[in-house]
Amino acid sequence: MATNRDIKNTLYEQVSRIAKASASPKRLELLGLLCQAPKTVEVLSQEASISVKLASSHLQELKAARLVASERSGKNMIYHLAS
């Protein structure tokens, strides 16, 4: 059974991940773009004016913070805001 301290530590770790993930202006821009609709990494990179590699890296950080999720659609990964 989790103690009160364990619950607090888990909560603070998640808040820290969210703060780190949202500390980048480009990551915030990607989140804004995903507010409009789910998109592929290629579309996101084009709309944010960054390389696909950089967009993918930012999306992985956002995914680690559980702010975005992805689903495979054929050869493409479609990113959307996490529930």
Give a concise summary.
This protein is α+β, with helices and mostly antiparallel strands. It is built from 4 helices and 3 strands.
Plain-language structure description:
By secondary structure, the chain is α+β, with helices and mostly antiparallel strands. The protein has 4 helices and 3 strands; from the N terminus they run ααβααββ. A 3-stranded antiparallel β-sheet has the order 1-3-2. A hairpin with a 2-residue loop joins β2 and β3 (76-81). α3 packs across α4 (52-64). It is elongated.
Question: Features of this protein?
Answer:
3-stranded antiparallel β-sheet; 83 residues; elongated; 61% helix; alpha+beta; 17% strand
- What amount of the residues lies in strands? 15-25%
N- to C-terminal distance = 26 Å
Radius of gyration, taken over Cα atoms and rounded to an integer in Å: 14 Å
| Class from helix and strand fractions | alpha+beta
In which order are the strands of the major sheet placed? 1-3-2
Total helices: the number is 4
Main beta sheet, described?
3 strands, antiparallel
Secondary structure elements and their pairing?
Elements: H1 4-21, H2 25-36, E1 39-40, H3 41-48, H4 52-64, E2 68-73, E3 76-81
Antiparallel strand pairs: 1-3, 2-3
Helix pairs in contact: 3-4
